[in-house]
Amino acid sequence: MASNISTSTPSLEFEKETLDTDLPSPIDTPLKDENLAQGTEDNAHATTFTPGWRFYLAFISLLVITLMAALDATSLAVAIPRITSALHGTAIEGFWSATSFLLTSTVFQPVFGSLSDIFGRKPMILISLFCFGLGAVMAAVAHGSMALMLVGRSIQGVGGGGVLVLTEIVITDLVPLRFRGQYFSFWINLPFLAIGTPLVIIFLNLKFKQTTIMQQLRRIDWVGAVLFIGSTTGFLIPLTWGGVMYSWSSWRTLVPLIVSAAGLVTFVVWEEKYAADPLIRISIVKNRTVALTYAGDFLQGLLLWCNLYFMPLYFQAVKGQSSIMSAVDLFPGTFTVAPAAIVVGILISKFGFYRWAIFSGWTLVLIGMATRVVLQVHASTATWVIVNLISGIGLGMLIPSLTFAVQAAVPNKDQAYGVSLFTFFRAFGQCVGVAIGGAIFQNSMKREISRHASIAEHASEWSAEASSLVQVIKHMEHGVARDDLLESFANALIVVWMVMVALSAVALILSLGTQHYDLDRPLETDQGLQETEKITVVEDGTASR
């Protein structure tokens, strides 16, 4: 089969006027003439999709590696106290064992998305897998060395962030917009790295206009990358250690936050006005639906991670469960996410509408967070099961619906940038969720402990770190002091849940401003599955096969 890749010389510099290209028109506004003139043949093609065996083999490879990264990002939450104890680490080091992965994963997602446009999707996926594997080995052999484990988790986070963003980008290359819900939603169902890496090498053969390494290096937005990575890292680190390692009023917290915020403003100005081939295309966010969906995506990540971090602490501290059993107790709120996402993704693909799922999802999340106020010391099993079921279904509904909203509103040529920003905002919300939840819990816990004479003298000490307090409770003798501490823990968590209720309400209100975009549009990509040949563009502009 002949390749359909154009052999014309590609532009090595991103033309600034393309930043002003109109985004797809909402369905309730008149379409532009060029959209009307697309022709019935292309539109008909957009409503049918019959993938072949090459697609399924490539897709299976993406499923395997995505599950690997997703599980690693979430599985550590219930084991932090045990890992910290086994490696003889402090409570602060235990905190960083989870945060380091999340931090590096968040920072590098937009970078991998941009580099995949320059070097190709497959090479960047393989680099991500290498980083993930290297970090996993370092963490696995860190017997007695907390420092080695933290370095390994950080490197793993770089690879995990690359895997999570690049697999979503590749889906936009392989599947027409309307049908992405049928395939995207299955990403969490298959296992693992040892299988996934060779599958990617063998079956993920994507078309890509090859250029020389010097041409590719010239296209990288070096200034933007340094500004983004440095400023984002500098912003997230004090955000995660505020109230844990240093107080929120400490200069060690405030100075990095202020300097990094200024750096992010500088980054936006650079990307908007000066970057030849921007790391992030700011024009995407100027669309109302995209901006509101990114806000919802950020809040979903915040709520999801706050739930994953604090619900296990409720089960371990208040209900006295082990790390393993607390993970089992999370099932109603975690195992409902995937089925809800799958069902909603299929329904959106079938009927072509996604706003209903966004509204319904946020409504269920709001109800699920609001009903958490009943999770007291003596709450029954049925109570916390129902509460977690509601929020789990709601969060699951939001996964495909928010994804559709962004991808439908972003032009085909900017899909990689739109998807990488989408995954970044979700991961950024996860980092902020831990920080906000931790600060709220710490202040509430100190206040609650101070109310009880039997334990008031320990208010500052015990409120400093939630995960270390679990071990304190487990080693206390039964009596008034222990009962007062359990009550204080449960009441402090209720304050966290109430803040989550307020944020869920904000997200629901913001979602009302999203517009619907037509999902039936042709699939246009430069990096779809390669059939029989690859075209390489050399320095003089000629094409070789």
UniProtKB/TrEMBL annotation:
The chain crosses the membrane at residues 55-80, 92-112, 124-151, 158-177, 183-208, 220-241, 253-270, 291-310, 330-349, 356-375, 381-405, 417-441, 489-512. One of its GO terms (cellular component) is plasma membrane. Residues 58-519 form the Major facilitator superfamily (MFS) profile domain. InterPro entries: MFS, MFS_dom, MFS_trans_sf. The keyword Transmembrane helix applies. It holds the Pfam family MFS_1. Keywords: Membrane, Transmembrane, Transmembrane helix. The keyword Kinase does not apply. GO terms for molecular function: transmembrane transporter activity. PROSITE patterns: MFS. It is a multi-pass membrane protein. It is found in: Membrane. This is Major facilitator superfamily (MFS) profile domain-containing protein. It comes from Elasticomyces elasticus.
